[in-house]
Amino acid sequence: MLKDASGDSFSRSGFRYNRSGIEPQPGPTAENPIGNPKWPGITSSGGMNWIMYMVSEFNYTLSLAYIFARSGSVVDSEMITPHPSDAPSFVDQIGHFKGSMGDSPDYAAWDGENAVAAIWFGVNDVRVTFTEPNIIDLLEKVVIRLFELTNDLYNLGFRKFIIIEVPPINLVPRLQKHRLGDDYEKLLYSIERWNGFLRENFVLFKESHKDCKSVLLEISDIFWGAYLDPQSVGAPNSNCTDKKGVNCVWYDPLHPGKRIHELLAERAAEAAWS
């Protein structure tokens, strides 16, 4: 099973894809399912993230992950400027996929039966814009754009899709109410509307792509469960951070630790592999 992952720092691994003009990089293998860098890659979890768990602990057959996700990424940088400004968007990541393995080369052969496209955007789209005026209209257009790009992956040959909602990022230490003040309600509303637009457009995508297996993965309860009962994930409280990603809910003030990633991976694997 081949897994193509597009997204942001919640999904990144530091993977360097092969393209002309650079020294060839090792691709995913049974020994290292993410290919490069050395397992478990460069993540924002303290170790393995949900993709690593998915292809190593919750896989039912050999599963290889080609992870094009990068920190700071948004759906389309022509619509929302990412931070950093050069973070490759979903548009760019599809281009990277097409340029390196879109034609199913021998070293990464894939087809609609053995490949899954995992798509997780929105965290940065919401985070960098939620205080702006008329943001809801923009978010609706960005979600529509996300599904246009998902259709591009369909046209390339993908027939299995996992699309993940924006989690309650208002729970992460940097975006909690005492840090944001009056802007906190704007963040809550932006998250709610993004996920509402995501559900609406997912239904339309599924209806128009009946030959696909498409899943919209809801994960908010995983984040809330860890936040409300931190002991359930081995944390002393809901707000501490741990750079090893083990002893706290959060890896840093913006990212979840490994236990949340593990729970997310279990759910994603059930959706993808079943």
Reconstruct the topology from this structure:
Layout: E1 2-7, H1 50-56, E2 64-67, H2 90-101, E3 115-120, H3 123-127, H4 135-156, E4 160-164, H5 177-180, H6 184-208, E5 213-217, H7 220-228, E6 250-252, E7 255-256, H8 258-273
Parallel strand pairs: 1-2, 1-3, 3-4, 4-5
Antiparallel strand pairs: 6-7
Helix pairs in contact: 1-8, 2-4, 4-6
What can you see in these coordinates?
The chain has 274 residues and is an alpha/beta fold. The chain has one domain (2-220): Rossmann fold. 36% of the residues lie in helices and 11% in strands. A 5-stranded parallel β-sheet has the order 2-1-3-4-5, sandwiched between helices. The protein has a two-stranded antiparallel ribbon with strand order 6-7. The longest helix is centred in the last third of the chain and has 25 residues, at 184-208. The two termini are 12 Å apart.
Total number of helical segments? 8
Helix content: 25-40%
Q: Radius of gyration, rounded? A: 18 Å
Strand count:
7
How many structural domains?
Answer: 1
% residues in beta strands: 5-15%
Listing every helix as H and every strand as E from the N terminus to the C terminus, the arrangement reads EHEHEHHEHHEHEEH
Q: Can you give the mean pLDDT?
A: 95
Structural class computed from helices and strand pairing = alpha/beta
Q: What is the CATH architecture descriptor?
A: 3-Layer(aba) Sandwich
How are the strands of the biggest sheet laid out side by side? 2-1-3-4-5
Note the gap between the termini: 12 Å
Task: Report the sheet with the most strands, covering strand number, pairing sense and barrel closure.
Answer: 5 strands, parallel
In CATH, the topology is named Rossmann fold
Shape: globular
